[in-house]
C-alpha cells in the first residue's frame, strides 16, 4: 500500500455537521491521499465529547476536552475543524488562530464581511491556513459542471439560472435557543440555506470564479416570522454579460429535490438533482427545446452525469484542506479568502435590502 501523509484534526463542537464530517474523515478509503486522524474533540462537556467519539469514530482515540480552547492548545493537533453555529465562528476561529492552528470553518464563514476580514487578518498575521468549508465547491460534480459550462460551452452562452433551497422547519415553535431561532447564532435562511442557492448562482453565472469573480447587481426581499427571516428571494444580474440568476431559500416548505439548480444557455439547459441543494447527486444536460410541425414544444433527450461520493461527500474538502496544509499553503484555491469575503459582502447586501440585522452588524 502507498504511504500517505497524516494530518491530525481537532473537532470543535459535537453537533450534526461535526458528526457528518467526522464519519467521513474516518471512512476506510484505499485511495485516500491523506490519513486523517481525529486527535482531539472539544465540546461544552466532556461527557458529550466522549459520547460523540464512541458513536462517530469508535476506532479513533481522540483526547476529549471540555472546552474548545483546550482542544486548540493541543500540540499534537495540525488543523482545527469548527462546527459551531454561525454566530460563534469568528470567536472560535480567532481562538484557534491565536494558538497557531490551521482552521477549516463551516459555512457561513462568519455573520458578516467585517467579521470575515477580521479573521483573515488574524490568520495572515499568525501565518496559518484557514478556509471556509463550502463543501459544494469541492465536489467532483461541481467541478465537472463548471468545465462543461465554460470550457466546453456545452449549453452555449449561459444566460440565466435558478436555484432554491427549502426546508420545512417550524421556526416560530422552535426553542428560542435553537440556531434556527436565535439571531445571535445567525438565524435566518440566508446564511444557512440560501448560501447554497447563492453559491450555485455566483458560480454558474461567472466563468471567472473564484479569483477574478464579478460581483453582480443584487435585488433582494426577505420575509420574517417571530423576527426571524423565513424566506429570501434574490435576483442577481451580471453587468458584463446581462446574465441573470433567481435565488431563493425558505424554511416554510421543502424544496423540490429534482430541481437543485437549472442553468439555461443559448444551446441547451442543465438541471442539477439531489436530495438537498447542498448535496447534488447528478445533472442532466438537455439540448434546446424543439417545436414540431403541430407547434408543440418538445424537450430532447438529455445526457445524465452521475457522481458517486464516498460517505456523505465531505472527504473532498477534507482531503483538499489537508493537502493544502501539508503543502504549506495558507489559502484554498477552491475557496480563497477573497471569495469568502465576497460571499459575505453579497449576503450583507441581501440582508441590508431584506431587513435582517445581527447585533454584530452594529459593532
Ligand atoms: N456543510 C454542511 O453540510 C453543513 C453545515 N452546517 C453548518 O455547521 C454549523 C453547525 O450546524 P449544526 O451542526 O447543524 O448545529 P448543531 O446545533 O447541530 O450543533 C452545533 C454545536 O455547536 C455547539 N454549540 C456551542 N454553543 C452553542 C449554542 N449556544 N447553541 C447551540 N450549539 C452550540 C454544540 O456543541 P458542544 O456542546 O459539543 O460544544 C452544538 O452541538 C453551522 O455553521 C451550519 O451552517 C450544518 C449542517 C450541514
Ligand atoms: O449546510 C446545511 O445543509 C443542510 C441543512 O439541512 C443545514 O441546515 C445546513 O446548515
TrEMBL record:
Its EC number is 1.1.1.179. SUPFAM superfamilies: Glyceraldehyde-3-phosphate dehydrogenase-like, C-terminal domain (SSF55347), NAD(P)-binding Rossmann-fold domains (SSF51735). Signal peptide: none annotated. It catalyses: D-xylose + NADP(+) = D-xylono-1,5-lactone + NADPH + H(+). Residues 145-271 form the GFO/IDH/MocA-like oxidoreductase domain. It comes from the Eukaryota. GO terms for molecular function: D-xylose 1-dehydrogenase (NADP+) activity; nucleotide binding. Pfam families: GFO_IDH_MocA, GFO_IDH_MocA_C3. This is D-xylose 1-dehydrogenase (NADP(+), D-xylono-1,5-lactone-forming). It comes from Xylaria arbuscula. The lineage of its organism: Eukaryota, Fungi, Dikarya, Ascomycota, Pezizomycotina.
